[in-house]
Amino acid sequence: MAGTLDELWRQCTWALNNGDPRTDSWFLVHSPLPVTLLFAFYLLLVVAGPAIMSHREPLRLAGPLAAYNLGLVLLSGYIFYEFMVTSLLAKYSYFCQPVDYSQSELGIRQMASVCWWCFFSKAIELLDTVFFILRKKREQITFLHVYHHGTMLFNWWAGVKYVPGGQAFFVGMLNSFVHVFMYLYYGLASLGPHMRRYLWWKRHLTTLQLGQFVAIAAHSSYNLFAECYFPDGFNMAVLLYSLSLILLFLNFYHQTYLRGKQEKLT
Questions:
Q1: Which of 179, 165, 171 is CA-nearest to residue 86?
Q2: For the chain, how many helices (H) and strands (E)?
Q3: Taking CA atoms, which of 50, 117, 183, 227 is between 20 and 30 Å from 61?
């Protein structure tokens, strides 16, 4: 037993010390402990928050919500722009791209740093759940919601720690593009019922979210068989994660947009 624990400790130490040295000192990157504690606190809020709010009036928070969502629209737009422009300037392949571990300006100051911003945005987006709790929108805190927010935090931490760039840029670029429209929708919805006539495109937003996961799954699948110097372990992890989200979003799509119509027909 002691030998097994020693070997596990050696492997953990090796993993911590063998990340990308360029990003190792960046905020929240060196160790998984800070993001693990953040996630544990997040889960505590998910469990205890609704109970704490059960005897309180829901908060409207129209102003803070509008500012929060607008901020994420701008941040997502910046991340998308940086991923796209840097990948084009560096002549990245959209089919197979190894990580540029050099100290070049495009390799570290732009591609690696925008990967960090993508990771950091996932920490900020945990506030989505906090706003749901404060507004007593408990029905919005679904398994899909918590799973997606929590796992994205760890996925992007691992990306910045070990593979800040390369194939990862494609995932971040698509995700940030979708988030521009997603947080625009949330921002408009937070302004009140009078905005409902402008929110007819909710179903199309869900389709766009599904489309990104299908594209990411296809992209990762291709690179498992192509001669590409990008870790197969990361490609496999991205593929399996994308498939899980496709299934969960398909279920959400069915429950939200199709089941009601089917019940009306029966």
A1: 165
A2: 10, 0
A3: 117
Q: How far apart are the first and last CA of the chain?
A: 60
pLDDT at 223: 86
Mean pLDDT of the chain: 90
How confident is the model at residue 46, as a pLDDT? 96
The catalytic residues are: 148
Orientation of helix 62-89 relative to helix 168-189, angle to 10°: 160
pLDDT tens profile 54-98: 999 999 898 999 999 999 999 999 999 999 999 998 888 888 888
Mean pLDDT confidence for 27-36: 95
pLDDT at 69: 97
Q: What is the DSSP letter of 57?
A: P
Q: Measuring CA to CA, which residue among 113, 109, 212 is closest to residue 160?
A: 113
Q: Which residue has the tokens 């997040």?
A: 42
Positive or negative: CA dihedral 251, 131, 214, 166: negative
Residue 29: phi, psi to the nearest 5? Answer: -95, -45
What distance in Å separates the CA atoms of residue 211 and residue 189, rounded to the nearest whole number?
A: 23
Angstrom CA distances, 139 to 113, 133, 135, 244, stand at 36, 10, 11, 21
pTM: 0.91
Beta-carbon contacts of residue 126 (< 8 Å; ≥ 6 apart): 38, 42, 149, 153
CB 160 within 8 A of CB 29: yes
Residue of 163, 256, 165, 164 lying closest to 210 (CA atoms): 256
Per-residue pLDDT reduced to its tens digit, 227-253: 888 888 899 999 999 999 999 999 999
Measured CA to CA, the distance from residue 224 to residue 216 in angstroms comes to 12
